[in-house]
Give the backbone structure.
Amino acid sequence: MTTFRAIRIDKTAAGTTAAFTDFDEAELMEGDVTLRVTHSSINYKDGLAITGKSPVVRRFPMIPGIDLAGIVETSGDPAFKPGDGVLLTGHGVGETHLGGYAQKARVPGGWLVPLPQGMSAARAMAIGTAGFTAMLCVMALERHGMTPAHGPVIVTGAAGGVGSVAVALLAKAGWHVMASTGRPAEAAYLRGLGAAEIIDRSELSAPGRPLGKERWAAGIDTVGSHTLANLLAQTKYAGAVAATGLAQGMDLPASVAPFILRSVALLGVDSVGCPRERRLEAWSRLARDLDKARLAEMTRTVAFENIIAEAGAILAGSVRGRVVVEIG
C-alpha cells in the first residue's frame, strides 16, 4: 500500500472537517494520468472548501485544492509522458474530483495543460485559477471589441488574486486602470501593478441609482451584488463588464436601465468549464503578456503545512495577491 500526504475533508453531523492525513493511493479517483504534485495555490474557493463556509465540496472524502502543477509519473494519454510538466485548473478538481492539496493526483489527461515554454510550476501556480480567470475576463472584453481607446477600465476586489492579475494585465495592455479596494493601505501595491486611480469600495458597495454618471468604458468585477450593479450603472454607452465573482454576494440588485438605455453588456466569465482551446489560448497569453516582475510583486509562497491557516485568512480578506503552496 502506497500512501502520500494530503489534506482530507470529511463530512460529519456537525459539518465538515479538514485535516492533514496519509491518503491511500488506491483511493485516488479515475484518470489516465498520475502525477507528482509539486505546487498548488490558495484561492477564495479553497478557503470556502476548507472552512466549510459554503457547500463547495460535493463529494466526501475530498482532497481540496482547485489548482495543481507537477510532474507526470504515469500516463495512458498519448499527449503526455513521464517527466512532463503539467498544470490543471478547474474541471471540478477540489470539489467533485480529488484536488491539488496532496503529493499525488490522478486525473483525465484531457484536463491537463502542458506547462508553457519557459514557465515553471511555481510560476504557473502564482498565476493559478485567479490569474487564469483574470485573463479570461480580459479576453471576454477584447472579444466584445473593447480597447484602451474606449476609455478607462475598472477592476473591483483589485487587491485580491483575480483583481491583482487583472490590473497588471490591463495596465500592460495600455488601459487606464481604476482599481477598487476596501484596503486603502494597498494603494501603493496597486499602483505598483499599474493602477492609475484607486477607488474606495464604499463608493460602489451600497445600493445605488439605476443609472449614474458614466465613468468607465469597461470593467472586471470579482464582487457581485451592489458593487456589480453600480459598475453597470456607471459604465459608458456601449461599454462592457466581465463578471466573475461573488465576494459581496450572489445577488444582482440592478435594473435593466444600463442595458436598454446605454447598450451596456454584461459578460459572464467561468473558468471551471472553460473549453480546452480557449484554455490553451489563455495560458499562452499569460506566458507572454503577464509581466514576471509584477507577478512576483503580488506573490508569496507558503509551506504545505500552512494551507489551513491561509484558508481562513483569504476569507477574512487579509490576503493580498497570490499565494503559492510548495507541496514538496
